[in-house]
């Protein structure tokens, strides 16, 4: 039986009427504050969006070179690889995102001014707590990979929100450089393939807003395990060996103006073979990660302007031995519109603080205020529990 939202750890009931009134009052205050807040667009994000469209049309592969593979974390006694923690998690599935300190101004230490951090908190709230979007299976965790420059204050807040925070070391290559700090660390996303405790992981970029539960994405036929091809023409001697099998399913990059649901027949994709790396489902595998890292260490093997996206598009090119498979076109859309939202797309790949389609701004921003109002009330309840000598965490019960 689900624990009541207002039940203390010792079992003593808190006045439901009083707690509801407190929550409604707090939520009302923060919701109305939206009218006094006007976030400014991030010019770097708009530049990236333009690059995405350009590369979808003109993606080219580069020349070859040498590579090295960095060491993997091993147990000091057995010498065997040690999967990332999460010993308390029993699910075969997980949701995950990535957060680095370079996504915001390094001189701004106020988490409330970091839109990517707030976006990660919104994801946590939607996946774990919000009644209309949370996972139907409460055992599925939400994992946030963080780099060393994400301060403990932010990590602690994410853990308090219910996320599993997993610190990871950087993955970089000298030939891959960028003038934009927010893109500096994206190749560290390859550490996602070290989550070998799970059969499948659904990755979502931090700038993603849900409209409903995502559990069924793990049942999409595109996420099935595939045998790796053996076409010798697609095998390069300077790359690490391909794995025996793999699973990598995603969505194509869509045009800013498209119909819902987008289709190739309606010319809604600049290149239906060009993957958008903001939403995908994969099977964690050290062999796949080793292959990716070998590509990362070969200068000009892929276009470095969008590092991880173009690495995936090379590794999982349709004419290669590990072609990516396409999820149903209703799971995720980049450059979403009101038509997409009304049509029922399950996730909107859009920045809540700087949407391309201004008509979506009230909907996107409302999730921030809901998230903050929920956690203010939740933190208050947990403090009451601790003050009475007990503590039990909870999700919002039906």
Task: Provide an overview of this structure.
This protein folds into two domains: 71 residues, no CATH class; 305 residues, Alpha-Beta Complex (Spore Coat Polysaccharide Biosynthesis Protein SpsA, Chain A), CATH 3.90.550. The chain is 28% helix and 12% strand. The chain is built from eight helices and twelve strands. α1 packs antiparallel against α8. The longest helix is centred in the last third of the chain and has 27 residues. The N terminus is likely disordered.
Number of domains: 2
Structural class: alpha/beta
Calculate Rg over CA atoms: 22 Å
Helical fraction equals 25-40%
Average residue pLDDT: 83
Q: Going across the major beta sheet, what is the strand order?
A: 3-2-1-4-9-8-10
Residue fraction in strands: 5-15%
Task: State the CATH architecture of the largest domain.
Answer: Alpha-Beta Complex
**CATH domain topology of the largest domain:** Spore Coat Polysaccharide Biosynthesis Protein SpsA, Chain A
Topology:
Layout: H1 16-32, H2 43-58, E1 93-99, H3 115-128, E2 142-146, H4 152-161, E3 164-167, E4 200-204, E5 208-210, E6 226-227, E7 245-246, E8 248-252, E9 275-282, H5 286-296, H6 307-315, E10 325-326, E11 332-334, H7 338-343, E12 347-349, H8 361-387
Parallel strand pairs: 1-2, 1-4, 2-3, 8-10, 11-12
Antiparallel strand pairs: 4-9, 5-12, 6-7, 8-9
Helix pairs in contact: 1-8
Give a brief description.
With 398 residues, this protein is an alpha/beta fold.
């Amino acid at each position: 039986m689900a624990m009541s939202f207002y039940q203390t750890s010792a079992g003593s009931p808190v006045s439901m009427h009083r707690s509801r009134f407190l929550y409604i009052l707090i939520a009302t205050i923060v919701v109305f504050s939206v009218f006094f807040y006007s976030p400014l667009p991030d010019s770097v994000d708009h530049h990236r969006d333009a690059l995405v469209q350009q590369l979808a049309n003109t993606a080219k592969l580069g020349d070859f070179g040498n590579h090295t593979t960095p060491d993997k974390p091993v147990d000091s006694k057995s010498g065997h690889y040690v999967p990332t923690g999460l010993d308390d998690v029993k699910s075969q599935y997980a949701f995950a995102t990535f957060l680095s300190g370079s996504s915001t101004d390094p001189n701004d230490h106020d988490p409330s001014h970091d839109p990517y951090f707030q976006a990660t908190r919104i994801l946590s709230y939607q996946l774990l707590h919000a009644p209309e979007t949370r996972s139907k299976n409460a055992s599925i965790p939400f994992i946030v990979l963080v780099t060393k420059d994400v301060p403990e204050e932010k990590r602690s807040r994410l853990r308090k929100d219910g996320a599993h925070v997993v610190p990871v070391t950087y993955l970089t290559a000298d030939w891959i450089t960028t003038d934009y700090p927010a893109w500096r660390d994206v190749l560290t996303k390859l550490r996602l393939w070290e989550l070998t405790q799970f059969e499948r992981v659904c990755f979502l970029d931090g700038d993603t807003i849900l409209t409903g539960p995502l559990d069924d994405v793990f049942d999409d036929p595109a996420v099935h395990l595939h045998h790796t091809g053996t076409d010798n023409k697609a095998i390069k001697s300077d790359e690490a060996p391909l794995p025996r099998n793999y699973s990598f399913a995603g969505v194509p990059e869509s045009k800013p103006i498209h119909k819902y649901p987008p289709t190739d027949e309606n010319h809604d994709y600049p290149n239906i073979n060009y993957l958008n790396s903001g939403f995908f489902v994969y099977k964690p595998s050290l062999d796949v990660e080793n292959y990716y890292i070998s590509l990362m260490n070969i200068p000009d093997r892929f276009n470095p302007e969008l590092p991880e996206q173009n690495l995936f598009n090379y590794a999982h090119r349709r004419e290669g031995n590990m072609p990516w498979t396409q999820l149903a076109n209703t799971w995720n859309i980049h450059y979403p519109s009101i038509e997409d939202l009304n049509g029922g797309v399950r996730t909107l790949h859009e920045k809540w603080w700087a949407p391309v389609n201004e008509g979506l701004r009230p909907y996107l921003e409302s999730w921030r205020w809901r998230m903050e109002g929920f956690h203010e009330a939740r933190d208050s309840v947990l403090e009451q529990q601790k003050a009475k000598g007990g503590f039990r965490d909870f999700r919002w019960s039906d």
